[in-house]
């Protein structure tokens, strides 16, 4: 086999995996639209989505007003968390890193809690007061980490340790707020932290989609440079990569993705950690395949979880944050145990 | 040039002039060899200038290839992908046929094309090292810097790697600088040797001028015998570490002194 044959074989295999997984996301997306208080046939759902004018009003209302925003939000947040986790693991060269390593979600929870319990926030924003507070505090924690990363002496370990410090700091703030609140306030904050896709509306879904698209383009444009980080900082620098600049840019992108996702859906853990691991096992570290597949894996996990959250107890919607771990952990363990040698 | 890590001065006024061919940098641990290589690769800001054909190395990154000591052994990139990154500055999402061909033919030159589709984390340390050397060569540099390139290689691979390096240096007329710990390998494969000691240049010149028993005693602290091999190149036969020898001698004299003291004590009592 010549050079082209070898390269085509490597790329061909990875493209096939990407396409299969993308098709799986589409299937899970349709399943998500089909499930709910009343089950619908796939044809009925597709007809209502593509030809709303030729479908009865009841079905259109259920699909377009209730299920479609939630299903799109599941895919968009999954893409966001998958990408954010992938790049966090890349720039920090740590397989345990994910968006929550930096304490972003706990900071968001603290912001949400501030409004729910103490009424601190933009009251005039109405139903958006909680997400705005969550977003502001998620961004605040990201800014602190960014400032630490900007320091000349900052290295990967310092960023990780600062993130863990932020995580514990905001966790204790959240506990303090819960301690100060009434039983009702405590339970509403607890449910916010469980994570839910039911807060999706046609107003907030486009915000998440735009954030995913914009940051995705930024990451994709730096694909080969990000891949070169896997050869070590010195090697990447010698290849002409401004490693500290790249790391800062990616950190900002990860922060935006995480802050947007968390503020509209609450804390949904595990997706950002596991999605990239699954992707790496399947296609390796080449960012041209690793980045999209991590995003797709995140979307797949969250879309499937969204469906299951409606099926587990009919008539009720189970918290999504619990479901993601329930379905993700067995699958993840199966992959780890089946894989020979190192998994990252 | 001078370089410091914070307040600690690591390179204390280095002045070297290297011609085309292979120059080996040797010296004991913490002499500043790897730091010098990083400065030459343009990775560290330093005072003074390092230039290649009159141009500062920081201005001509494309003409320099650098292989650090650390190997990316844990990454799940394939060998082909690692090779392609040798031309990182011109890579797009769709890789052009010319780059693929260049990557594969360099692997063929090194005799390791059979591992081109394998992941780095499936390879041995030596295979990883060969891939990284190949990646450097693929850049077609004017200055090739390799920090301990023979670290993980078995004897046969070491010889193959150095033979390839010498051929490439001659054919392409490039300047190759290697940090080596094996003085005999440095003697065999280098046109010039620079000896670093405590951040300064102890000596610089042809192997026969630099590798002497006196240098080995002063820089490495070893007692050795230097002979000439069949090509007239110096060959080092290390005898013992002067420090260990001194310690042993001190211990012996102290034991003698103690036994003398005890004998005296018993005689008195």
Question: What's a quick, concise take on this entry?
Answer:
The complex is a heterodimer of chains A (344) and B (269). Chain A is mainly alpha-helical.
Keywords:
heterodimer; A: 344 residues; 76% helix; globular; B: 269 residues; Rossmann fold; 2 domains; six-stranded mixed β-sheet; 9 helices; 39% helix
Q: Any overview of this molecule?
A:
The complex is a heterodimer of chains A (344) and B (269). With 344 residues, chain A is an all-alpha fold. Chain A has one domain (3-338): Orthogonal Bundle (ABC transporter involved in vitamin B12 uptake, BtuC), CATH 1.10.3470.10. Chain A is built from 14 helices and no strands. Chain A has helices at 3-34, 42-50, 57-92, 104-118, 129-150, 156-180, 183-194, 204-221, 223-228, 233-238, 243-265, 271-283, 287-311, 320-338. Chain A is globular and about 60 Å long. The two termini of chain A are 28 Å apart. By secondary structure, chain B is an alpha/beta fold. Chain B has two domains: 2-206, Rossmann fold (3-Layer(aba) Sandwich); 212-269, no CATH class. Chain B has nine helices and twelve strands. In chain B, the strands form four sheets. Chain B has a six-stranded mixed sheet, with helices on both faces. The chains are: A mainly alpha (344), B alpha/beta (269). Chains A and B meet through helix 1, helix 9 and helix 10 of A and strand 6, helix 2 and helix 3 of B.
Q: In terms of quaternary structure, what is this?
A: heterodimer
Distance from N terminus to C terminus of chain B (CA atoms, Å) equals 67 Å
Q: Note the beta-strand portion of chain B.
A: 15-25%
* CATH fold group of chain A: ABC transporter involved in vitamin B12 uptake, BtuC
Question: What's the CATH first level of chain A?
Answer: Mainly Alpha
Strand residue content of chain A? under 5%
Number of strands of chain A: 0
Please count the helical segments of chain B. 9
**Shape of chain A from CA axes?**
globular
Could you tell me the radius of gyration of chain B in angstroms?
A: 23 Å
